[in-house]
Design goal:
Strand content: under 5%
Distance between the termini: 25 Å
CATH topology: AhpD-like
Number of domains: 1
Structural class: mainly alpha
Largest sheet: none
Order of helices and strands: HHHHHHH
Helix content: 55-70%
GO molecular function: peroxiredoxin activity
CATH class: Mainly Alpha
Pfam family, one: CMD
Protein name: Carboxymuconolactone decarboxylase family protein
Length: about 160
């Protein structure tokens, strides 16, 4: 599989990615645990069928110390016993935020209240932003048919 264009080598795309990356960096500095951030990104990427982002974030999570068992179970987190209640709340928010078009009401009040139980206002802003940002990355990569498998942890700094 070849990408439709060299998005990472295109100077104009670089300008766009610079701004998206800046937003992602700000959201990542929120105090939400790194493991939770990666789980949120992985789950949204799985839902959106973004192989590139799924590859990237599972490798980054592994490099940050995440276990293979938990990574294997992200897609079935509701049935898995290896996630904390706070992580479950973040994963629910990620799923509902990613599936906005599938649900007339978007994110339910219950999902929001579940997340608000474990995360303060700044962390909720970060989680909501991370979901939006990873969905943007997913769309860029899926539309461009960016192949998965070659990412190296920390490759993009």
């Amino acid at each position: 599989m070849e990408p439709r264009l060299d998005f990472f080598g295109n100077p104009f795309a670089g300008k766009i990615l610079k701004h998206i990356n800046s937003a992602a960096r700000a959201a990542s500095e929120s105090g939400v645990p790194t493991a939770t951030q990666e789980l949120v990104k992985i789950r949204a990427s799985q839902i959106n069928g973004c192989g590139f982002c799924t590859d990237m974030h599972t490798k980054d999570a592994t490099a940050a110390g995440e276990t293979q068992q938990r990574l294997n179970l992200v897609a079935t987190w509701r049935e898995a016993t290896v996630f904390t209640e706070a992580e479950r709340a973040a994963l629910e928010l990620s799923e509902q935020g990613t599936r906005i078009a599938d649900a007339a009401g978007g994110v339910t009040d219950e999902a929001w209240a579940g997340a608000a139980k474990y995360y303060d206002e700044d962390q909720l802003v970060a989680l909501l932003s991370l979901v939006a940002i990873i969905n943007a990355y997913n769309r860029i990569n899926v539309i461009n048919q960016q192949p998965a498998g070659g990412y190296r942890p920390g490759q993009f700094g």
